[in-house]
Design brief:
Elements lengths: L12 H13 L1 E5 L4 H4 L5 H4 L4 H9 L8 H11 L3 E7 L25 H11 L3 E7 L15 H20 L6 E5 L7 H4 L1 H11 L4 E2 L10 E5 L12 E5 L19 H13 L3 E6 L9 H21 L16 E4 L2 E5 L6 E6 L5 E7 L3 E2 L2 E3 L3 E7 L12 E6 L11 H17 L1
Helix pairs in contact: 5-6, 5-11, 7-9, 10-11
The structure holds alpha-D-glucopyranose.
Alpha-D-glucopyranose (GLC) binds next to loops.
C-alpha cells in the first residue's frame, strides 16, 4: 500500500484532540436502513438473490416510513447509554437516503419523498447524540459501479459520483461527527478511489470529523472487528467493533425473538470491547416504517438500565487495555483497578486462582461494600458476597479489585506445572 503522507494521518495531535470524545463515549448505535427494510431479507438480498435492477427499484417506491422515525431511535440510543449514532446514508443497493442531485434513486424522488438523512441528523442532535453517516463505496445500482474498473469514462463518472455524494453529505447537514465508509469494491487501492483527495476534501468541510479506515487510508479508527471482537487487536490504533443484534444488519422480517441478542450477551461484547479499550457500534435494523424490532428495543433498554448504574464506573471515560496481565476472566481496567464483570453470580464466596500480585482491596458494586478476602500464593478467596445477585438490572454486578502493582495471573495446565506450583506454594507458606 502506498504510504499516505499528509500530516493529518492519523496519529497526529489533531487526531488525539478529535477522537477524545469518541474514546470516552465507547458505545454507539449503528442503523442499517434502506429499501432492504421493505423486503426484510437483509441488505445483501439484491446481490445474493440476483434481483434484477428494475424489479429491485420497486422496493424504493414501497418504502414509506413514518415521519421522523429516527426520533425514536435517538431516544432509544440515549436510553441505552449510547453516545453516538451512525446511519447508512447509502448502502450497497445504491439508494440514497438524502436529497442527492447526483442520482434519482433517492428518498426524495422515490418512496418517502422526504430527506431521511435530514430527519436523522435532527433527531440525533435533539437527543444529544454525535452524528455519524455511513457511506458504501460499492454501489450495485449505479450504471458505472462495476464497469468503472475496465472503462475509463465509467471510471471518471463513478469517481465523480462517489466524491460528489460524499461532498453533499458533508456540506448539507451541518456538523457531522463521523464518516463511516464501507466496502471499497471494485477497487483495492487508495489511488483508485483517490481516497487521499476524497478525505482531504472531507476534512476541509468537516475539520473535527472522525473517519474510519474503509476507504483504505487508515484515518482515525480501525474497523477490523466486524461481527466479533478480534483477538489480535490493532496496536496503537483506535478501534471499533460493529455487531448486529440479530445476525442481520438490515431488517430481518422473519427473525424470531430468540434470534436477538440478550442484554447479557450485549454486555458480554461491551465487556470484551472495553477490555481492549475499543468502542462498540451496535446495530439495529428498523423495518420499512422505521420501527425498531421489539426484541432489540427491549434488550437495548435493559442494557441502558445497567449502563446507567455501572457505565460511568466501568465503560465510559478512559480505560486501559487489559493486556499482558494474563488475567483470565472478564475484566476492565482503569489504572490499578480491575473490574470483574460477574456474569455468573456465586453466592457467599468466590475464588480466583493464580493471581500473583498483591490485592489491596475489593469492592462489590452495586453498594460499594468492601469485601473481606484472603490471599495465598495460588488462591484469592473473596468472602461476604450476598446470597442473592445484587444487580437488579441485568444480573451483572461488578467486583472492583485494586492491585498493589501491575496484576499478573498465571495460567498453568499439565501435571508437571501443577506439581511445580504446589512446591512453590509450599515454599511460599514456609517463608511466612
Ligand atoms: C459489511 C457488509 C455490510 C454491512 C457492514 C457493516 O461490509 O457488507 O452489509 O453494512 O459490513 O460493517
Amino acid at each position: 500500500m502506498k504510504k499516505t503522507t499528509t500530516a493529518k494521518y492519523p496519529f497526529d495531535a489533531a487526531h488525539e484532540r478529535r477522537i477524545a470524545w469518541w474514546r470516552d463515549a465507547r458505545f454507539g448505535m449503528f442503523i442499517h436502513w434502506g429499501t432492504y427494510a421493505v423486503h426484510g431479507r437483509g441488505e445483501w438480498a439484491m446481490n445474493v438473490e440476483q434481483i434484477p435492477l428494475k424489479e429491485y427499484e420497486k422496493y424504493a417506491d414501497a418504502f414509506k416510513p413514518k415521519p421522523n422515525a429516527p426520533r425514536a431511535w435517538a431516544k432509544l440510543a440515549a436510553e441505552a447509554g449510547m453516545k453516538y449514532m451512525v446511519m447508512t446514508a447509502k448502502h450497497h443497493e445504491g439508494y440514497c437516503l438524502w436529497d442527492s442531485k447526483l442520482t434519482d434513486f433517492n428518498s426524495v424522488k422515490r418512496g418517502p419523498r422526504r430527506d431521511l438523512v435530514a430527519e436523522y441528523v435532527a433527531a440525533a442532535r435533539e437527543y444529544g447524540m454525535k452524528v455519524g453517516l455511513y457511506y458504501s463505496l460499492m454501489d450495485w445500482h449505479h450504471p458505472d459501479g462495476a464497469r468503472c474498473i475496465e472503462n475509463k469514462g465509467a471510471y471518471k463518472r463513478f469517481i465523480d459520483f462517489t466524491h460528489g455524494c460524499v461532498r453533499e453529505l458533508m456540506s448539507n447537514y451541518g456538523k457531522i461527527d463521523i464518516l463511516w465508509y464501507d466496502l471499497s469494491w471494485p477497487f483495492m487501492k487508495i489511488e483508485e478511489w483517490q481516497s487521499v483527495k476524497l478525505n482531504a476534501m472531507v476534512r476541509k468541510l468537516q475539520p473535527e470529523i472522525l473517519i474510519n479506515d474503509r476507504s483504505l487510508t487508515p484515518e482515525d479508527f480501525d474497523t477490523g472487528s466486524e461481527g466479533h471482537v478480534k483477538g489480535g487487536l490493532p496496536q496503537g490504533r483506535d478501534w471499533e467493533a460493529c455487531m448486529t443484534t440479530t445476525g442481520s444488519w438490515g431488517f430481518a422480517a422473519r427473525a424470531k425473538p430468540s434470534q436477538y441478542s440478550t442484554p447479557a450477551g450485549i454486555l458480554g461484547t461491551l465487556r470484551a470491547v472495553t477490555a481492549g479499550a475499543g468502542n462498540l457500534l451496535l446495530n439495529i435494523g428498523p423495518d420499512a416504517k422505521g420501527n425498531v424490532p421489539a426484541p432489540a428495543e427491549k434488550s437495548l433498554r435493559d442494557v441502558g438500565a445497567w449502563m446507567k448504574k455501572y457505565g460511568p464506573e466501568v465503560v465510559y471515560g478512559h480505560v486501559d487495555r487489559v493486556q499482558g496481565t494474563g488475567l483470565r476472566d472478564s475484566y476492565t481496567r482503569k489504572g490499578d483497578c480491575h473490574y470483574m464483570w460477574l456474569f455468573n453470580w456465586t453466592p457467599f464466596e468466590r475464588s480466583i486462582g493464580r493471581i500473583r500480585t498483591k490485592v489491596k482491596d475489593i469492592t462489590l458494586i452495586p453498594g460499594n461494600k468492601k469485601l473481606p478476602f484472603t490471599q495465598t500464593y495460588d488462591r484469592l478467596l473473596i468472602k461476604g458476597l450476598p446470597e442473592k445477585n445484587p444487580d437488579e438490572t441485568v444480573g451483572v454486578p461488578l467486583l472492583k479489585i485494586r492491585f498493589a502493582g501491575n496484576p499478573r495471573q498465571d495460567f498453568a495446565i499439565g501435571l508437571k506445572t501443577m506439581a511445580f506450583e504446589r512446591k512453590a506454594a509450599k515454599a511460599a507458606a514456609k517463608k511466612k
